[in-house]
Amino acid sequence: MTVKIDENKCQGINNCGTCFDACALNMLQDVDNTPKPKVPGCVDCGLCIIACPSDAISK
Ligand code: SF4
Ligand code: SF4
Predict the structure, then answer these.
(1) Are 48 and 2 in contact (CB under 8 A)?
(2) Where are the domains positioned within the chain?
(3) HSE of 37 in the Cβ direction (CA atoms, 13 Å)?
(4) Which of 14, 36, 41, 45 is the most buried (most CB within 10 A)?
C-alpha cells in the first residue's frame, strides 16, 4: 500500500514541497508538480501525512 495524494488539496510542489522533506526514504517523486509515491518504495509510514499542511495526503 502507498499513500494517496488529493490533487485538489495539494498546493503543488513548487509552492510547498513539505512532504518531500518529510519522507525519510525519499520515496516521493514529482509528477507534473504533484507528489506521487514510488511503487514499490513507499512503506506507508505516514510521515508525509502528518507533515502536509493542506491535509492532501491520506492512506
Ligand atoms: S508514507 Fe512514508 S514512505 Fe510513503 S511517501 Fe509518505 S513519508 Fe514517504
Ligand atoms: S505537503 Fe501536501 S500540499 Fe505540500 S506538496 Fe506535499 S501533498 Fe502537496
Answers:
(1) no
(2) 4-58
(3) 25
(4) 36
Q: Where in the chain does DSSP place strands (E)? A: 4-5, 28-31, 34-37, 57-58
Q: Determine if the pTM surpasses 0.85.
A: yes
Pair 23, 14: CB distance under 8 Å: no
Domain 4-58 annotated CATH 3.30.70.20: yes
Return the best residue to mutate from 5, 16, 31 for the ligand 2 pocket (most ligand atoms within 8 A of CB).
Answer: 16
CA of 20 to the centre of ligand 2 (A): 8
Cβ of 34 below 6 Å from ligand 2: no
